[in-house]
Every structure is written in C-alpha cells, then in structure tokens.
Amino acid sequence: MNKQVITSDRAPAAIGPYSQAIKVGNTVYLSGQIPLDPETMEVVEGMEQQICQVFDNLTAVAEAAGGTLQDIVKLNIFLTDLGHFSLVNEVMARYFSQPYPARAAIGVASLPKGVPVEMDGIMVVS
C-alpha cells in the first residue's frame, strides 16, 4: 500500500500526531477540520462563520490532494449542539451541488479546543 501524505498551508496545521489527509490510490481520507483560521490558528467567531471556516479548510486540503469538495463521497459532521443542524444544511448547500455526498451528522459531548463543529470526509479523485 502506497500512502501519500497530503498537506496544505491554506488549512490549519495538524495539532497532533496526524496528517491533514492521506491518499491511497485514488481515495483520499480527509482528517477532521475544526474552525481554525490557518493563518492565526485561532478559532473564528460565530457559528455560521465557523461552519464556513470548516468547509474552507476542507476545500484547501481537498485541492491539495487534486480534488474539490464535489469529490467527497462521505462527509461526517460532528456537532456539540444538534440545534445547529439546519444551519449546517444551509451553509453546506453553498459549498456542494448535487449529487451530494453521503453524510452523517453526529451529536458529541465536546470537540478539540471547545469548538462546536468538526468535519471529516472521504474523497475519490480521478
């Protein structure tokens, strides 16, 4: 198995012993992204802005792997408050077009740095 590490300076640097993404063949496994501004490594303010930042971070890593968000086939969304589910849907519709990826939205007790949202995914590129 040939694993290729994917990195982008347009997304936050890993804050632990992991890679931003790993590519095996034409499949890319995108690590979880939280709403960190990649330049300051600080959490952005406001729920809508945080969701957008997560999608922007995923976009940067997807592009570094030779794809786009449209190449994501499975998206996992982790929320500390499922009351934000409809806002996530609204923002997601700005970043994706049909066919949408398969998806899970999971309520969790807490996330790194106390953020309310994290997302990871699996992408297939040609």
TrEMBL record:
Superkingdom of origin organism: Bacteria
Concerning PROSITE patterns, the annotation shows: UPF0076
Q: Which InterPro entries match?
A: RidA (IPR006056), RidA_CS (IPR019897), RutC-like_sf (IPR035959), YjgF/YER057c/UK114 (IPR006175)
| Entry similarity comment | Belongs to the RutC family.
* PANTHER family the record matches: 2-IMINOBUTANOATE/2-IMINOPROPANOATE DEAMINASE RIDA, 2-IMINOBUTANOATE_2-IMINOPROPANOATE DEAMINASE
This one is known as Reactive intermediate/imine deaminase
